[in-house]
Amino acid sequence: MGAILKVEHVSKIYQADNGEIEALKDISFEVQEGEYIGIVGPSGSGKSTLLSIIAGLIKPTSGNVYINGNRISGISSDIGYMLQNDNLLEWRTIIRNVLFGLEIRKMLTEENIEYAEQLLKNYGLYEFRDKHPSQLSGGMRQRVALIRTLAVKPKILLLDEAFSALDYQTRLAVTDDVYQILKRENMTTLMVTHDIPESISMSDRVIVLSKRPAQIKHILNIEFPEDVRTPLLRRNNPNFGQYFNKIWRELDVHI
Ligand code: ADP
Ligand code: MG
């Protein structure tokens, strides 16, 4: 089976007022369908740049990105993108927020609306469909944002520090929740985070980037016993600390 995502020799040099900024240097990796990939690296190393290139929002200086063998050349509905801010529209009800992505893509078909409603039902939000975002907790808002993103049926989901605005307790609960939704939907996910434990608790593999210009330092397979199925259980498993130490050493943080 071919990879759903192929990143091939991607480099990015920004032209800034005070000269060139080399953000990415020769990044190559492949992702299989249904995989959950964590991406960690020092702040300012080029993580968001990499996701923006995969999303088709910016062009690489050299190299290519392929989704199911097709080279991407711009923004595509194959990609779902979630950022730190949930970006819910306060004046819209929950259901109208969830349908917003379909609306702007002109994809409001009966079938798609039904799928969005089914997602709300499956993930415990259907009874809140006529409420407004301000009436929901931070965790529930994040779940709405995720469902809005999934409603357009992307092939790949990109998460850029998507949970970092939440307080610690909420973040633990939300990441557990999100992980289970994404695994159930068999979503291929790339998650950028500066939080090493978060990456270990959710990922099948973790890509460790160097400081700028970002190069791949290491790709780590994350393995836990069969019965350790959730991020919270992973955090309490003895393997967890070993992975933490490995990634910490790779990141080579100096203070
Ligand atoms: P990260 O997400 O890892 O913190 P970014 O990808 O946001 O890093 O940025 C990588 C580097 O590229 C940083 O030094 C940043 O200042 C620079 N950069 C990001 N976007 C631009 C841009 N549009 N123009 C010039 N430089 C940029
Ligand atoms: Mg960033």
Describe this structure in words.
The structure is a single chain. This protein has 255 residues and is an alpha/beta fold. It has a domain of 142 residues: 3-Layer(aba) Sandwich (Rossmann fold), CATH 3.40.50.300. Helix content is 34%, strand content 25%. It is built from 9 helices and 10 strands. The strands form 2 sheets. The chain has a 6-stranded mixed sheet, with helices on both faces. α4 runs antiparallel to α5, α5 runs parallel beside α6 and α7 crosses α9. The longest helix is centred in the last third of the chain and has 17 residues. It is globular. The mean pLDDT is 93. The chain binds adenosine-5'-diphosphate and magnesium ion. The site of adenosine-5'-diphosphate has 13 residues, from β1, β2 and α1.
